[in-house]
Amino acid sequence: MTPPADTAPETTVPRRLSLRFLLRQLLRLALSLAALVTASFAMIHLIPGDPLRQMLGPTAPKALVDQRRAELGLDDSLPAQFGHYLAQLAHGDLGTSFFSSQPVSDIIAQGLPNTLSLAVLATLTALAVAIPLGMWAAVRTHGGRGRRTEAAFTTLTGAAVAIPEYLYGLALLLVFALGLGLLPPAGLTGPASYVLPVAALTLAPAALIARLARVETLRELDTDYMRLAHAKRLPARRLYAVHLLPNTLTATLTMGGLLLGGLITGSVLVENVFAWPGLGQRTVEAITQKDYPVAQAMILVYGALVLVVNFLVDIALGVLDPQSALSAPARQEG
Amino acid sequence: MRRLLRNPLGLAAAVLIAVLVLLALVGPPLFGDQAAAIHPDRINQGASATDPLGTDALGRDLLARTVVATRLTLGLAFLATLIGTVGGVLLGALPAVLPRRAGRLVVATVDILVAFPALLLAMFTAVVTGLGARGAVLGIGVALAPAFARLTHTLTASVAGADYIAAARMLGVPRRRILTRHILPNIAEPLILNTAQSMGAALLGLSAMSFLGMGVQAPSYDWGRLLNEAFGHVYVTPAVVVAPALAVALAGLGFMLLGDTFAKAAAGSAEPLGPTRAPTVPPAREAPDPDAVLEVRDLTVAFPGGVTPVRQVSLTVRAGEIVGLVGESGSGKSMTAAAIGRIVPHPGLVASARSTLCGTDLDALKPPERRALLGSSLAMVFQDPTASLNPALRVGGQLAEVATQHDGATRAEARSRAVRRLSRVHIRRPEQVARQYPHELSGGMRQRAVIAMGLMGTPRLIIADEPTTALDVTVQREVLRVLREAVDDTRAGALFISHDIAVVGELCDRVSVMYAGRVVEELPADALHRARHPYTRALIGSLPGMDTDRSRPLATIPGRQPSPADVHDGCPFADRCASAGARCSTRPALTTRGTGHTVACWEA
């Protein structure tokens, strides 16, 4: 062998760019959270007329309205109120419910775990079902083969996407709980209680992710490195799980992350269908009863959940696909 | 529109929406009284003869109420879509009109808003505006706007990059006028397509709000409100939720399908091709070449519609030899390589009189055995090294897997072999490179890594498909040297595919020239100057040399190669050939003109 003589420059990209990527995402999260906190604070002040009057009704005595207003600190100047709001938030104090006099933080502590477990379980189920299904459909329909499979797949998933989660919830409730009596219709009494709400939340996103996974997989199947991997005669399992999957995941998980955001709020509807002891029922109650402190806090919590989920998805993508993490900052600058 | 009606799903969706619109128009006058009639004797009943879909808490017919509610439901959804569309388009077009900094702020705000789910934005608005249809419509409208704004912004940005916009800018057309005259008309179509889907989304969102009690309030009712009222009795008479739920589901489906069909009609879809007719090739009669690592006889690849990119190509590659395969783009070189490696894309079919790799008949092997043989004995190198390495996997792992999968090596063995192979293709710091991802390497390094990957097994044949075309000239030499060394070290044979006859002449031992899917001349590389086929001579003649007269245009071959779908009886090159004669209307066969030199030409 001749001694190494490189004419090509050995370019290596420094790893610290990943840190820059992380910082950038953190900054983004912080800015979005700040906007959310401001919006939730502004919410009460945007209500036309007197929010206290709205809350207590036209028949409440003026003295009571004034007293409550003073309690809430709504007589102070706006900057002072905002400062107070931020200080409270920093201490985890989200105010007190007008109707139950329960601290809002207690309400959230009770409901949040149930809401989160439902949403996380539904997301995992959707991804676990949809990605293999989409990849299978892609392999079956690649290059114009399996036209019937393709037609059936796109029609069924298209229809499944169009139906909202609460209608799935109602249908599942009617058939499996009230009709067949196989599963509990309401509340959280054990693992079986999860089945129907999770199924209701999963169906539409799973159909959407499966479609996306198929499109992504089709695109990847045409790349040179998949041709080369074919030429290396790797077993199917390795070919699809190791070579194909990571490259289809980026777009699929981006979508999945956005769906998880939608799924968190979709859980509001499903929780109401199945009387789930999460945040959803309390949120609807608070908004319909004009319990503003609770409504304000709930919107803050749901919004923050969505933002944190998006942040985590971005970070996960950076780990999975270093190229996107490295090019993302450049893209944003450009 | 005609395409829409030809698609059965599109037709179904159009009919469904038409029926809904009709019901919205005639429902209230026809069934209004029936929907309002209170029957205390039939409260919360399931299906019956008088009330096919049950009654509500006041004994009112649910079917009639569902039909009557169509008007309010569709009307509110339309209003919300209108708010979302107009608001979104304005918001999305703002950055094109505003000063740069303010425009960026708008884009950033939209970016943040898009992240929030529609229902959350709608609930926020509902709190601020108070409960009721007005708040819900406003809320859903506001919730739809960010997506529209982002779409408008993306479309505007893509159109704004077009040359005619640049020209308008240069002519000093004001920005607002550019927006209204040039940009909006060009982005209108995708925006309108999006509206059908948004209408569906608005309808579902409003129904959800009403179902939760945050939308339409009694005594008005839309489908969501009906669901809300019925849901209170669902445990007692489950059937009462069926009518409004079905209505929401059908309307959602209708709008979604219509949007899909619009989008598909706009994108256009390819007509399906017929099935491929398998090419037929009689088996070879002459004895196999004992020295050959690769021997193919009459290799033919066929696609639907009579497209035959490779026609009866015969090639022999012996151990330690590099055979060049040259020709213009579209001559079938790469498809020949794919056919040898058995990676012809679907729906192509391959046939040959004989395909042997290292003396084993590929067609006689069972698929797993063929996979094992090709996986360990054949190495492939493609044109674009950026695309040949999987971007998501480390370089070392992609090399090592060949050893773990085909030779049963342990991970550590495979890893150290990968590092040794990387250093063999002159990659410096191979341990470090093995840990890196493909995008961290330069193009030349990547291509050498791909060659190293081919050397992981015990390749008997290396197929290199234009391995240097995508590289700089300086890096090209490096890759060619590595390839030559690999062949010399391993005594493998190599098939080197290139359109560059100069490179082929330098690197290869023998050369096969392909034209229109066939080999037209085969000769030793050092005999290229004695080439007899007019096409080979033209290829060589089109090379600029040191003594080329620079004042005259470079020599080119006039005319174009026939397409792989053409069926021609004569010599395919005749149309472009200066010396073509009468005999050229029948296709010449390859005939021997000296040692290792065959030509398919009547006139040569």
Structural account:
The complex is a heterodimer of chains A (334) and B (604). Chain A has 334 residues and is mainly alpha-helical. Chain A has a domain at 111-320: MetI-like (MetI-like fold), CATH 1.10.3720.10. Chain A contains 13 helices and no strands. In chain A, helix 10 runs antiparallel to helix 12. The longest helix of chain A is centred in the middle third of the chain and has 38 residues, at 104-141. Chain A is globular. The model of chain A is unreliable at 1-17 and 325-334 (pLDDT under 50). Chain B is α/β, with parallel strands linked by helices and 604 residues long. Chain B has helices at residues 2-6, 8-36, 62-97, 100-115, 118-129, 133-160, 163-170, 175-211, 223-231, 242-267, 333-340, 367-377, 385-388, 395-406, 411-424, 430-434, 443-454, 473-490, 501-507, 534-541, and strands at residues 292-303, 307-318, 322-326, 349-351, 354-357, 360-361, 378-381, 461-465, 493-498, 510-515, 518-524, 591-592, 598-599. Chain B has an 8-stranded mixed sheet with strand order 7-8-9-3-10-11-13-12, sandwiched between helices. In chain B, strands 1, 2, 4, 5 and 6 form a 5-stranded antiparallel sheet that branches. In chain B, strand 8, helix 18 (473-490) and strand 9 form a beta-alpha-beta unit. Chain B is elongated and about 105 Å long. In chain B, 49% of the residues are buried. Mean pLDDT of chain B is 80; it is low at 269-273. At the A-B interface, helix 1, helix 6, helix 7, helix 9 and helix 10 of A face helix 5, helix 8, helix 10, helix 12 and helix 14 of B.
